[in-house]
Amino acid sequence: MEPAPTQAQHPVHEPVDVPVDVPVLEMVQPMVGFPDRRRFALERLDDTGLVCDLRSLDDPELRFVVVAPGPFFPDYSPEVDDAVVAELGVESEDDLLALLVVTLGETADAATANLLAPVLVNHRTRRAGQYLLDDTDLPMRAPLSPA
Amino acid sequence: MLVLSRRVGESIVIGDDVVITVLDVRGDVVRVGVDAPRSVQVRRQELLVELAETNRAAASPEPSAVAGLSALVSGADRGRRTPAPGPRPPVPRPQAPRRPADPPAGG
């Protein structure tokens, strides 16, 4: 018998692109493996707003490239629970963006995106975090290029 | 590491707020229930290890690879035949458990 449910799940609105640069994000859940890096800037890397730079303001050497899921994973619609909603100060579904951390090798051909642990951003409150989703079938390294 | 033995149905309390209960044992799979405040994240350790490795591999990529990525993304975006789905109103799923159920073959 499964335990009694305690929380509602909320789908994350899938954005077409990052609407606006966010000067300073406060990571309430830090990037896993980088626990003391809490302040990041989120900036577009190109005109489309689909590829962005998540750059540490505490460590100039540290940055991540993130992409909006839409172009590659149009059905990606992560569900987040009430605890995450509360922690990020989400009031409406429009507040939330899901951004996927991209692992790049020497070239972009082998680039992969992390669907299991997106960076969720409330662009209104500027709180963000990397959250492991419940659906353990989602890959951490999903290829961006077909085949 | 503190080592304790528990029978099925027995529990361990960590701090004041976290309770781990052994639910059942089937072969070499132990099913464990966790009661914790919402503010405490409960995650499988091997996933955290893999996530830390993936983040480290992703951190601070080569600028040339990043430039290649922008080209890839523009191509993928142009190739989309239908627009991205619009917003879905949150649908409460009262039957969904807080923690994922283990698959029958073991979590």
Task: Write the SSE topology.
The complex is a heterodimer of chains A (147) and B (107).
Chain A: E1 9-11, E2 22-29, E3 39-44, E4 51-56, E5 63-67, E6 79-81, H1 82-88, E7 96-103, E8 112-113, E9 119-122, E10 127-130, E11 142-143
Parallel strand pairs in A: 2-10
Antiparallel strand pairs in A: 1-6, 2-3, 3-4, 4-5, 5-7, 7-8, 7-9, 8-11, 9-10
Chain B: E1 11-14, E2 18-26, E3 29-35, H1 45-58, H2 63-79
Antiparallel strand pairs in B: 1-2, 2-3
CATH topology of chain A: BH3618-like
Major beta sheet of chain A, specifics?
A: 7 strands, mixed, barrel
How would you sum up the global shape of chain B? Answer: elongated
Task: Record the strand order, biggest sheet of chain A.
Answer: 2-3-4-5-7-9-10
Task: Output the strand order for the largest sheet of chain B.
Answer: 1-2-3
- Residues in helix, % of chain A: under 10%
Description:
The complex is a heterodimer of chains A (147) and B (107). With 147 residues, chain A is mainly beta. Chain A has one domain (9-143): Roll (BH3618-like). Chain A has one helix spanning 82-88, and strands at residues 9-11, 22-29, 39-44, 51-56, 63-67, 79-81, 96-103, 112-113, 119-122, 127-130, 142-143. Chain A has a seven-stranded mixed beta barrel. A two-stranded antiparallel ribbon of chain A has the order 1-6. In chain A, a hairpin with a 6-residue loop joins strand 4 (51-56) and strand 5. Chain A is globular, with a radius of gyration of 15 Å. The termini of chain A are far apart. The mean pLDDT of chain A is 87. Chain B is an alpha+beta fold and 107 residues long. Chain B has a domain at 1-58. Chain B is built from two helices and three strands. Chain B has helices spanning 45-58, 63-79, and strands at 11-14, 18-26, 29-35. The longest helix of chain B is centred in the middle third of the chain and has 17 residues, at 63-79. Chain B is elongated, with a radius of gyration of 22 Å. The two termini of chain B are 23 Å apart. The model of chain B is unreliable at 84-101 (pLDDT under 50). Chains A and B meet through strand 1, strand 5, helix 1 and strand 7 of A and helix 1 and helix 2 of B.
